Amino acid sequence: MKELRLKEHPILEVPDYEYISFYFNGEKLPARKDEMISSALIANGINVFGHHHKDGTAQGIFCANGQCAKCTVIANGIAVKSCMTKVQENMMVKSADGLPELPETNDPVEFEPIEELETEVLIIGGGPSGLSAAIQLGSAGIDTLLIDDKHELGGKLVLQTHKFFGSEEDSRAGTRGHEIGKLLAAEVMEMSSVKVWLNSTAIFVFSDKKVGVLKDGVYKLINAKRILNAAGAREKFLRFQGNHLARIYGAGAFQTLVNRDLVKPTERLFIIGGGNVGLIGAYHAIQAGIEVVGLAEAMPSCGGYKVHADKLMRLGVPIYTSHSILSANGGETVESITITEIDRNFKPIEGTEKTFACDTILIAVGLDSLAEFTLEAEAAGIPVYAAGDALEIAEASSAMFNGKIMGLTIARDCGVVSEDIPQEWYQKAEVLKSHPGKVKGYQNHKAEEGVFPIIHCLQEIPCNPCTTVCPTNSIHTEDGSLMAVPLYSGSCIGCGKCVLICPGLAITLVDYRKDVQNPIVTMPYEIMNYPVKVGDELSLVDVEGRFLLKAPVVQVIENKKVHTAMVRVQVPRELAKQVVSFIVQDASVSEALPNAIVAERASDDAMICLCERVSVGQVRELIRSGITDLNQIKAITRAGMGPCGAKTCEVLIKGLLREEGIPVENVVPNTKRPVFVEVPLDKFPNGTRS
Fold this sequence. Notes:
By secondary structure, the protein is of the alpha/beta class. It has four domains: 19-100 and 237-363, 3-Layer(bba) Sandwich (FAD/NAD(P)-binding domain), CATH 3.50.50.60; 116-233 and 369-432, FAD/NAD(P)-binding domain (3-Layer(bba) Sandwich); 451-590, no CATH class; 604-666, BFD-like [2Fe-2S]-binding domain (Arc Repressor Mutant, subunit A, Orthogonal Bundle), CATH 1.10.10.1100. The chain contains 16 helices and 35 strands. Strands 1, 2, 3, 4, 5, 6 and 7 form a seven-stranded mixed beta sheet that branches. The two termini are 44 Å apart. The model has no long low-confidence stretch (mean pLDDT 92).
């Protein structure tokens, strides 16, 4: 069996892993030591982890974050989430087909006292906001406990191989996300007053002001005077035909497999969602040598940064705006996708269906804040704060700065820091979380002499590394603000620093010094798994991927420190200022199948609750009968009673209620009950048996 692992990556180092063996359904397979079971299975080409007990349909990974239970397997006789469980030498793993049998035992359970600990501040989540807050609290010497459910700090930063936007001063713009995660984690580990617990999941904030935490499989209680919720967010899902098939991933799961575990989970990927998460996911796929068949966005334009969308189109990935998914097609796993154009009311336009062959669909349609811990702490009367996505969905650059502010706020409330937080910090925080602004036209470069940058970043976004790196201070923003479009005026020396640092790969150099009629254009390039060498003829394109001409490469300068190359071509002067990049993915990758696959079944057959296999039609029928109480819908259909605890289906059901014209004030909310994630009962008495 061929292992589906990345042997090289243009950005990430591939370590010399130690391998062990485990068994899946009796077959001996290789695995990397300490990787998750799910990653080991997918690396061995196994995408179906079991079959649902209700309808026998295939189950596979979706979130890779412990939030759902689609990846459940039986490991050494115990049902576990494979995305959160490390594979062990000679571990016996079986697919979860139907309802697993409970292990037989007559041993009584002996309940021991549960260890309780005190801390001034408890931070739930070791991502960008949690780490930034911990640095501030540690600098103030405040007793702090930071917990995270993963085996390393960094949160989603660990998964980000692209250069970050935002402020160079405040959020390390121009540095790659995974590198920022390591820098922040290292700084936190140096703080003597900050304790870090990895592999530790917050279970619930109880009314007696104690927080239940499962640390390395042992249940503990934390008495915290203050809580910072920096737990992040969970991904939204969609209603569509075939949404139960295996090989439908959330963007976080895909990036976890590719960028954390260096597993190649797919050959042909289609993406739904044109926000930054979907656009970046597509770019990461190409860096991993995966064909990106296309991307569909329901709105008339992508909601993410224009430079992200432009970058994809320049590489040869088509973006279908005003389109949405109609169906995922296949037997047990995805074999193709059908998308359709939609009208202003997001209704499918008949006759516009297109079907594309693909083996995986990535769903990137937004995030929901993990606000549970905030609400629980408020109910318990514990002073609670929130930062990052747990407070408001925004970019990681915003989360870092927001976490910094919140850390200082807590330090002030603890009485350790006396000075007020500068007002300009709050103003900068607002800018960093800003949505993309206006798209401007190109700066008018009339001169055709010397060398100077062409800035193809035309949208107002919070980003400034190009203005800070120029040795002649020749790049500045329109009005000096972080949000404005960058402009060039001054004296360029052709060093290329702006080309290398730009997160959007949106700066080129045009050099007329040797040949005015045929100047040299320098382009950034960081997908070295598609190698480019001198003499190669490239299909050059403009900012949005429109073909301009073919031209040979005259020079390639690799900068291994920043993992970005500068590719130089010589082109006619009338096109030089338009050239931005070149196509790497052949157009044949994105060709639609001759005949679109349009499902005969009604859209109401789609699943609204994947845990309990409850269809849209079942819930719609109840709504139309007058039931608008989520608890009653749950009692009748079991939607929300599955292992994920309504984390996915509640959002979909609320969307269905809106679709049926039910005012939000008429909807009775779902009653939240402990716990945040499923915990085996024997963990609460610390697993001691007599």
